[in-house]
Amino acid sequence: MLLYNKKYLSVSRRSISLILSFFLFFFGFCGNIIDAQATDLEEMQEEAQIRKALPIQSNEIDNWPVGPKVSSQAAILMDVNTGVILYSKNIHERLYPASTTKIMTCLLAMEEGNLDDMVEFSHDAVFSVPTDGSKMGMDAGESITLEECLYGIMVASANEAANAAGEYISGSIENFVALMNERAEQMGCKDTHFMNTNGLHDPQHYTSAYDLALISSYFFKNEMLCKISNTDRYHFEATPTQPDDFYKKNKHKLVNGEIPYDGILGGKTGYTDDSRQTLVTCAEQNGMRLVCVVFKEESPDQFTDTVELFDYGFHNFQVLNISENEEKYNIEATGFLQIGNDVFGSSKPILSIDTDSYVIIPNTVSFQDLYSEIDYSQSDENRVAGIEYSYNGMYVGDAYLNLVTDNATSYEFDTNMTATDISVEKTEEKTDSSQDTIFINIKKVLIIVLVLAAVIITIFMVRALIVNGRTARRRENRVKRKQRRRSRIRSNFDDFDF
């Protein structure tokens, strides 16, 4: 019995030793991981501080509101409708967009496709993406509607759904990527090149904060796309072509409500090891629909910095309607050429500034502080000129000088005139082969006619007086000559005595 116990104890000691060795190795391994993570975290914090110290270009504009210092490599705050830039930091630097690429993918799918069409998932669409990437769980051969596909892309950030949408639109992923690059060029993007539909890392897949804000402006002008990207949780129901019933939650914290903010219209997250955290968000307040893009940040700074930038934009800038404030360009300079139903004084000017255009300027600036430049090279037949406004070299909005058309039927006069260029300095007339209807302001015409008649009558009266004066002098001279002649005759007869 004693021997058995010694043997048992000997075995137990070896087991305990092995267990202790395992735990020492395990905790040492975990400790190394923790130390490595701590080192990485420290390095990331140092890099964030370096990025935070980078210059902010919009802060260099005289009398422009000073924007916040954010820890992103690049950031922009842009008005969706006008393209006015309120905040800019390295906005033209080429960086990796990660899954924010899917904004362009969804925009093209919406522009080129039909939401009710079925999108089939090919083998390439499903298996060409990494297994650890974002997915919605589709299998090759399954199909869903394009609308569901867009929800999968924006809510679940599904890489295979982005591929399937590209194949549905263009027939292949490669053709769709070519379309993405073509569309970006049409929009005016200068620092963008796409290599895939979903933003998976590729050294040649890049864009800039400005270009992505430009693309996002088109995206957030579409109300359906706003609705899709502003969905916090979406239910994918089972169908004959897709057998699973499941939910997907949006990871965008300003969309899913984890960070509440008024006026959010949607957005898209993005992350790869090379891009770090990227974020696009759109919000609307005070008549401004702003899109915010931040590139290369560490979580959760991409969300908190976005909130800070939105606060900066909505609290420091104002919207002013151009037609209600413009006084420099005198539209009444059209003279008596007017258009409208009432020819006795209530007619409208033939030219007018469009009533929907506005400028976005700092709260401390007035409309009269702006510099404006007029451009007559307009391609639209109803647009006579364009007016661009800036403040200290910063573009703040524009408007069009339009030709007013009215289909009234009274007092019609046919004319070939289609547009009249009006500026402070000169008036030019442009003609076209088409015929428009204009009206004459009778009051102004009568006044002009009366003035001309008075001038003509005055000229005739002066001329008559001059002519009559000359005639009277000639008659008087003839009478005097006759009188002198008679006097000489009488004097000659006075020498004779009859």
H/E series: HEEHEHEHHHHHEEEEEHEHEEEEEEEEEH
**How far apart, in Å, are the first and last alpha carbons?**
212 Å
Given the helix and strand composition, which structural class is it?
Answer: alpha+beta
Count of helical regions:
11
Coarse morphology: elongated
| Radius of gyration, whole Å | 41 Å
Characterize the main sheet: 5 strands, antiparallel
Q: What is the percent of helical residues?
A: 25-40%
Poorly predicted tracts of residues: 333-339, 407-440
Instruction: Give the spatial strand order of the biggest sheet.
Output: 2-1-9-8-7
- DSSP strand count: 19
Q: What is the residue-mean pLDDT, rounded to a whole number?
A: 84
Content of β-strand: 15-25%
Description of the molecule:
This protein has 498 residues and is α+β, with helices and mostly antiparallel strands. 39% of the residues lie in helices and 24% in strands. The longest helix is centred in the last third of the chain and has 52 residues, at 442-493. Mean pLDDT is 84; it is low at 333-339 and 407-440.
Itemize the secondary structure elements and their pairings.
Layout: H1 2-52, E1 74-79, E2 85-89, H2 102-112, E3 118-120, H3 123-127, E4 143-145, H4 146-155, H5 159-170, H6 173-187, H7 209-219, H8 223-229, E5 233-236, E6 246-249, E7 264-272, E8 276-285, E9 288-297, H9 301-316, E10 317-321, H10 322-325, E11 337-339, E12 348-349, E13 351-353, E14 358-362, E15 371-375, E16 383-391, E17 394-403, E18 413-422, E19 427-440, H11 442-493
Antiparallel strand pairs: 1-2, 1-9, 3-4, 5-6, 7-8, 8-9, 10-14, 11-12, 11-19, 13-17, 15-16, 16-17, 18-19
Helix pairs in contact: 2-4, 2-5, 2-7, 4-5, 5-6
